[in-house]
Design brief:
Length: 124
Amino acid sequence: MDVKNLNEVPPFITKDGSEIRELLAHRNSVIRNQSLAEARLPVGGATQEHFHPRAEEIYYITHGIGKIRIENETREVKVGDAIAIPPGQKHKLWNTGNEVLRLLCCCAPAYEHTDTVITETESE
């Protein structure tokens, strides 16, 4: 049985600049076809715009508020919002609140740096 606790999983930085804690994936469990992680964006922080050629993602906001852009559509997001991101769709997330923005990220297939294509520079 694989049970991982968020407070015991070490963080790492994804290719888009997010700090994540990968809870379950092929790297640390019997899970083979998806991954579950918690991502954190600091106050005023943002990811680099990117897309995943293979993976579809679901973001679920657990703390804070922010703004997300998927392709040409931008929306405000808050605690309780679930966001669907199809493969190949460019997306960017901003923390617009006054606390760390925290969200669960489900990816199928599992998150991989090699399946992340950055579409902007860090200064944009």
